[in-house]
Input
Amino acid sequence: MSSLNRLAVAKNKRKFHAFLKICKQDFSLQATSSGPLEGYRVLDLTRILAGPFCTMLLGDLGAEVLKVEKPGQGDETRRWGPPFRSSESTYFLSVNRNKKSLTVDIKKPAGQQIVTELAKKCDILIENYVPGKLHQMGLGYQEMQEIAPQLIYCSISGYGTSGPYAQRAGYDVIAAALGGLLHITGPQDGEPCKVGVAMTDLATGLYAHGAIMAALLQRSKTGRGQHIDCNLLSTQVSCLANLSSNYLNGGQEAKRWGTAHESIVPYQAFSTKDGYFVVGAANDKQFQILCNVPV
Output
């Protein structure tokens, strides 16, 4: 190794140990907002939408969120555009406010050590890796529980930790198709349609957010964290709500109704000469009021 290379290695080692020293201290990220979660710290190992949406909500409530990203590229959604604001995609900006970011290569022992030290100082860790990946790096729930028993460890995946799809990456449109959302969305006699925004991802983030809040409440009584397991497919199936109940309890299979409702009329969009208007009369009294609206 040349003297120049040795100098570079030594410099990097000094930087790493200096940063590691900071991680081991009782640090404060100086939250810029207050709220019911002020004083709580979140270690965010997520990317794309479901996880970042969840951690953003925690940040909105006052928690300090430290987002760990991949060196050289960061969260993929930074490049999901156009449109862009300066160099960042507006997609990324929509779910990553109230966060502070650093890049760490968690595939390397030094990066794993940094994440471990940060986890010791955090209340919540959220990750959305394929199940088992972080365990292979020594960053799974079992490993973290031993060194940080206070930690609430939330895993978000596509299909859960078991089953034939467990090792598959999870994306909104695939989980929405498997979970029935595309089957019930679109024109009555048309093809299945994707919802305009990634509702399966967003609903999963909301489920994770609610579970974390409940875990924080339980920790106030027990003093210990726990593992939360959320996945896109289970979220989507649960969000079928009355339609799944129709099939389970009434033997009626769901179908596409366009903007109409299979049980309530009128409850849909109607075409007019210069556009559309939407009517939602959910009971007889509302329908009587509707019939008396001046034309």
Remarks:
- The two ends are 86 Å apart (CA to CA).
